[in-house]
């Protein structure tokens, strides 16, 4: 923890994540049950969810973490953001509804590889 010279800490910082939460690249990584065929999610609060179905330490886990860390970095930089109703990437907003995103006039499943933010994270 950083502190200034002569600064006394009154109490240790409390984390909103449990003691078993792993931190990778500055993002808390939380294992949980995710929806069908969902391996990972990057969240606006900086945390990353990894499916409990992904074996810890596996090549798949590394791939999922790398992908979600890319999204987390984009969110921290203000390049990518989302809420329940839209996704904004590089300043352009796309409607979001019922697990789909409207892109180039078509409704596509969230996470589809055709989105520019997914193409960037898959490099």
**Biggest sheet: strands, sense, closure?**
5 strands, antiparallel
For the biggest β-sheet, the strand order reads 5-6-7-8-9
Instruction: Give the rounded overall mean pLDDT.
Output: 86
Can you count the beta strands?
A: 9
Radius of gyration: 17 Å
Strand portion, in percent?
A: 25-35%
Helical content class? 10-25%
Order of helices and strands: EEEEHEEEEEH
The secondary-structure class comes to: alpha+beta
Number of helices: 2
Low-confidence stretches: 9-15
Structural commentary:
The protein has 123 residues and is of the alpha+beta class. The chain has 2 domains: 18-77, no CATH class; 78-113, no CATH class. 20% of the residues lie in helices and 30% in strands. The strands form 2 sheets. The protein has a 5-stranded antiparallel sheet with strand order 5-6-7-8-9. A hairpin with a 3-residue loop joins strand 5 and strand 6. It starts with 21 loop residues before the first strand and ends with a helix. The relative contact order is 0.11. Mean pLDDT is 86; it is low at 9-15.
Structure in a nutshell:
It contains two helices and nine strands, in the order E-E-E-E-H-E-E-E-E-E-H. It has helices at about 60-75, 115-120; strands spanning about 20-25, 25-30, 40, 50, 80, 85-90, 90-95, 100-105, 105-110.
List keywords for this structure.
123 residues; alpha+beta; 2 domains; 5-stranded antiparallel beta sheet; 4-stranded mixed beta sheet; globular
């Amino acid at each position: 923890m950083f502190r200034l010279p002569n600064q006394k800490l009154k109490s240790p910082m409390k984390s909103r994540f449990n003691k078993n939460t792993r931190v990778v690249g500055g993002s808390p990584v939380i294992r949980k049950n995710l929806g069908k065929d969902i391996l990972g999610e990057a969240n606006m609060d900086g945390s990353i969810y990894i499916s409990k179905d992904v074996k810890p330490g596996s090549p798949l886990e590394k791939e999922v973490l790398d992908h979600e860390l890319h999204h987390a970095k984009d969110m921290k930089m203000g390049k990518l953001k989302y809420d329940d109703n839209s996704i904004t990437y590089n300043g352009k907003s796309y409607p979001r509804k019922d697990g789909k995103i409207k892109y180039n006039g078509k409704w596509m499943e969230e996470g589809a590889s055709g989105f520019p933010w997914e193409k960037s994270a898959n490099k």
